[in-house]
Specification:
By secondary structure, chain A is of the alpha/beta class. Helix content of chain A is 35%, strand content 27%. In chain A, the strands form two sheets. Chain A has a six-stranded mixed beta sheet, sandwiched between helices. A four-stranded antiparallel beta sheet of chain A has the order 2-1-4-5. Chain B has a domain of 191 residues: Rossmann fold. Classes of the chains: A alpha/beta, B alpha/beta.
């Protein structure tokens, strides 16, 4: 049985006088410890799917099951301990007036795991490759890559099984992107994590994911394995166009 | 013909721990061509672009042996001279439409502001020019966009609005600071096409600042690679993928590739020798 099952999911936002159907009847499955990619342009609904999983978008149809169980609404603490999200913009996703220490200790406090939090926080920083001395810094005292490492450390504080990654490196430089992707790959291997990763960069998706779903205008266009992506074996015109627009990201330089 | 000539440009900031040089001796000449400046954050590429317009506030300090725009000495120019140049002759497109457009002013009003204030254009004429500028950047329903606030536009639309705004006075030189890094690949291609057209049809010079090497290789004529405030390599864009300098090679190698190995991506080796 797949760890994450999304069946016929629809998300509709009420807008002035009309309805915006951000996600329309999308289905996919992610096996445990797999890495699944969602790719498409802005507005294609890929981030909305992640938000729907977290209960942050109005689901109007279909079902999301994790471990075979439908998710409760509101999502609750058990969900937070199982699924965590890393957002796109490390400049916006960390509270500007909270120290790293406070950012990392908050999930522990909420979940009643505050005992021994000093050691846990220092270990969490070391795990994402930051010196423990960074504990008492504010976000503005960190670079973009360091902030994203803090965001990843925060997501991992409760030892979740599933990480939802919303464009985790698109705000970063190429060299920092490489370091962050390496960190995510290492953490996934060490902890047996399951990833659902959103990106508009096919090369990043190809590097990180076993399977990828191409989306357009809220609809699933085509699901591809990594092999099919690399050998350009897509069958729909849109997936092909997206692949062609990424032609400068192929293996040969 | 040389449009802009920069000799030994230095930008220094005074900090509590002593002066920090963000740009350290940059020299280049620009004709009516597309010049790319690439480098990581903090390499001084944005500061180089801003220094050309002398858009660096105290305590930042700009020094150069020479900086001339069509024969006019930019270093000796007064604030009044610079105001006449900025926007009208040399325009700059900033990175992020979310922070560079006025959030509480309609797009149309922002587009018309320069025409009304600077050129004293009548309202109807300013409006017609603003709509034409939006059409030039392939915005399909310019009337709706004119009445929209920036938050009602997508990132790609916002970016195109900023480009349209900069192009209204028909500048000779456009400095574009990461104009496409917030955009999807497909929208990115559209925006680049627009810029490309403007360079070829209007004979405009373009300084294209970006951290995306592959994009610059595809789009520009010539590329300067910057590291810690210095130009470490200058080469024709078509040769970028055969770059000699280890820093440029490192920047290229750390990019994931479709069909590439899934092993760890090579980390950039930041050798202090380059920076000296």
């Amino acid at each position: 049985m797949a760890l994450i099952e999304i069946e016929d999911l629809s998300v509709t936002f009420p807008a002035a006088g009309r309805k915006v159907r951000a996600v329309q009847n999308v289905s996919f499955k992610v096996e445990a410890q797999q890495s699944f990619g969602l790719v498409g342009e802005s507005g294609s609904g890929k981030s909305t799917i992640l938000r729907a999983i977290c209960g942050m978008a109005p689901i109007t149809g279909g079902q999301i099951r994790i471990d075979g169980k439908p998710l409760p609404t509101p999502r609750g603490r058990a969900f937070a301990a199982l699924v965590q999200m890393v957002f796109q913009d490390p400049y916006a996703s960390l509270h500007p007036r909270h120290t790293v220490d406070r950012v990392l200790s908050e999930p522990l406090a909420i979940h009643g795991q505050g005992r021994g939090s000093d050691a846990k926080i220092e270990q969490a920083l070391v795990d994402v490759g930051l010196p423990p001395a960074f504990r008492f810094r504010y976000p503005h005292q960190l670079s973009g890559g360091q902030r994203q490492r803090v965001a990843i450390a925060r997501a991992l504080m409760l030892q979740p099984q599933i990480l939802l990654l919303d464009e985790p490196t698109s705000a970063l430089d190429a060299s920092v992107q490489a370091e962050t992707l390496n960190l995510l790959s290492r953490l996934r291997a060490e902890r047996g994590l399951t990833f659902v990763m959103v990106s508009h960069d096919l090369a990043v998706i190809d590097h990180m994911c076993d399977r990828v779903l191409v989306m357009q205008n809220g609809q699933a266009v085509e699901e591809l394995s990594r092999e099919a992506l690399a050998s350009a074996a897509m069958t729909t015109p849109y997936a092909r166009a997206l692949f062609a627009a990424s032609a400068d990201r192929m293996l040969e330089g | 013909m040389t449009l802009l000539s920069v000799k030994n440009l230095r930008v220094t900031f005074e900090t509590e721990t002593g002066p920090v040089q963000a740009v350290r001796g940059v020299s280049f000449d620009l004709g009516r061509e597309r010049l790319g400046i690439v480098g990581e954050s903090g390499s001084g590429k944005t500061m180089t672009g801003r220094a050309v317009l002398r858009l660096i506030r105290a305590p930042g300090r700009i020094e150069a042996d020479a900086m001339t725009f069509e024969g006019q000495d930019l270093m000796a120019a007064s604030e009044t001279d610079l105001r006449a140049l900025r926007g009208r002759r040399i325009a700059m497109v900033m990175q992020d439409p979310k922070f560079s457009l006025n959030p509480v002013m309609k797009v149309g009003a922002q587009l018309m502001e320069g025409l009304r204030q600077r050129d004293h254009a009548p309202r109807a004429e300013a409006r017609a020019k603003a709509i034409a500028a939006l059409q030039a950047v392939q915005i399909r329903d310019p009337d709706r966009v004119m009445e929209a606030y920036p938050h009602e536009l997508s990132g790609g639309m916002g970016q195109r609005v900023m480009i349209a705004m900069m192009l209204i006075p028909d500048p000779d030189l456009l400095i574009a600071d990461e104009p496409t890094s917030a955009l999807d690949v497909t929208v990115q291609a559209e925006v680049l096409n627009i810029l490309d057209n403007l360079v070829t049809t209007r004979g405009m010079g373009l300084i294209f600042i970006s951290h995306d090497l592959r994009l610059v290789a595809r789009f520009c004529d010539r590329v300067l690679v910057m590291y810690k405030g210095k130009i470490v390599e200058e080469l024709a864009a078509k040769d970028l993928l055969q770059a000699k300098h280890p820093y440029t090679q490192g920047l290229l190698n750390c990019l994931p590739r479709i069909g590439g190995s899934r092993g760890p991506l090579p980390a950039l080796d930041r050798n202090a020798d380059w920076a000296r």
